[in-house]
Amino acid sequence: MTHALSDHDGNALRTAAYGVVPLRTAAGGHHEIAEAPGAAGAAAADSGAAPETAAGQSRPELRKAIEEIVESGFVGVSLRVHDERGEWAGSAGAAELGGTAKPPINGHVRIGSSTKTFTATLVLRLVAEGRLGLDVPAADHLPGFGLDRRITVRMLLQHTSGVFNFSGEVYDDGTVVPGIPIPYGTTGKEWVGNRFKAYRPQELVELALSKPARFEPGTGWSYSNTNYVLARLLIERVTGRPLAEEMRRLILGPLGLSGTVVPDASPEIPAPHARAYYRYEEAGERKTIDVTRQNPSWISTGGDMISTTQDLHTFISALLGGRLLPAPLLAEMCTPYPTGIPNMDYGLGVFVVTTDGGGTVISHNGAAVGHAALMYGTPDGGKTLTAALSCVDDAGLSIAAAFQKAQRRLLNEVFCGGQADPAQPTG
Hints:
By secondary structure, the protein is α+β, with helices and mostly antiparallel strands. Helices cover 31% and strands 18% of the residues. β2 and β3 form a beta hairpin. Keywords: Carboxypeptidase, Hydrolase, Protease.
């Protein structure tokens, strides 16, 4: 969901890296790689046919990178890169534990906090239509919550509102204030037993607003899923239509994103997809269960969407290329606000990342209990990296270090020519 990984362990770097929720170390699986150039190859791979590799597109450095990611503990990974050499897509590992089939090259994946970029873009589209103002009090459109009138629409998108994160907060002194039961921390087993429970966005917001704010509006930065559930309610209030309808009208439909889903409270995920897993202990016995089907309403617009690597590429390329927002609003979206995380600042629904090579990329990654997504683009949208990962997640975020390393490995390979040391921790 991009889980706010950091949401529950208090580590700002992790929060940024995972978006919403982190992943867990997965056992081995097959390391054989499938690769395909472009959509035709992806379709062949998804149908079970052996994909062909286009001349000049073998990209051994990308094959090696995804192979190493699987060896680091992921069950499977699918990668798509668009750059000056064209398009390359491939997958490594397995679609399910103990299986031999590779992950679908363009399969569906729960994208976690990458959802926030879609949501922010939708809000900014409404700003462009004159339906909303970025610097007006959010309370003007959301009466009834008792929202602090100093909180503006911009602060919600920028994570500068100070509003409590309904999935839990960890303060600088180590104090933990829990929110709803989530898959991480001490509530993991409770989440397992209630993973099909439906939450209404209003209840998530009401819970958050019943807790003390983290700071005065506009005086700090803290990643809070509540901001984006408020953004969802704002969209629905201003338009009079469900979020999913507005997403289709303004983003999914115009871009032809047929593989992208706004699931609301549905536990389903379209085929094809790699499977997602969760490991926990019960009565001293370790259990691993399939959590591919799960109700994502507990995270709502903090990280509930489903997409594909092709759709994520199309979206981030179109967004950064100026096809979705007027130039002034796109510039505001990508204007960095300091987060306190080295080389990672935040705009409006995007991270502004400084690479090891000194360049800038625009990104929002996410994780969603056994699934994760990576989404990066150069500021002009001309070069993109999108990926889908699957793993065995757990309450302790055991996959966190491998996830950070995987991000940095791919970022350096694609945007820095592979010259940086991938063994260094992300950020």
